[in-house]
Specification:
The chain is an all-alpha fold. The chain is 71% helix and 0% strand. The protein has two domains: 56 residues, Arc Repressor Mutant, subunit A, CATH 1.10.10.60; 129 residues, Orthogonal Bundle (Tetracycline Repressor, domain 2), CATH 1.10.357. It is built from ten helices and no strands.
Length: 204
Amino acid sequence: MTSTPTTGLRERKKAKTRAAIREHAMRLFEEQGYAATTVDQIAEAADVSPSTFFRYFPTKEDVVLTDDYDPAMIAAVKALPPEVGPIEAIRRGFRAIFDHVSAEDWAQEQRRQRLFLTVPELRARALHQLTESIDLLADAVSDRAGLPAGDFGARVLAGAVIGACLATARPGMTMVYEIADFDQVDRALRLLEAGLPLGPAGAG
């Protein structure tokens, strides 16, 4: 009878520790530069041991690269009934998360995004993560449709969705992480769902 409250408390403590590690890491990255900041410095600032740091983040890069929103978004997509089309489900999944992001959380996310644009080693690995995002989204699409894992059509659809999100980045930006307006993401996905009409038909 007491396992649920205990588990809840344990998870809250873990979330608090993880958030503290990330916050101190981001502060140090901004103050002294990403390359100059060590894991030992981050652990000391967060009042944890280096081994504790590595339990939460496998590498220093992962402090910035780990996206806390992806798992929740994928879960929201999978929770929708199968009669909801795949792109509509993804649109709803985005909205289920980002319509409820607080101003404080979004400010933190923008700090994370800025590092992608300024640290070359993060940009390089972030490009690799685009493939991982396609895999994650394709698995959700396949799962909802009762298709085998790795279904080609699901991967193509997932790639098109990621590409549509990339297209919403501001002119001059090269990464999806600079997306600042999720209304634009929604608009891009609606355009994709409609078969990509160009001109006035696709301007709405």
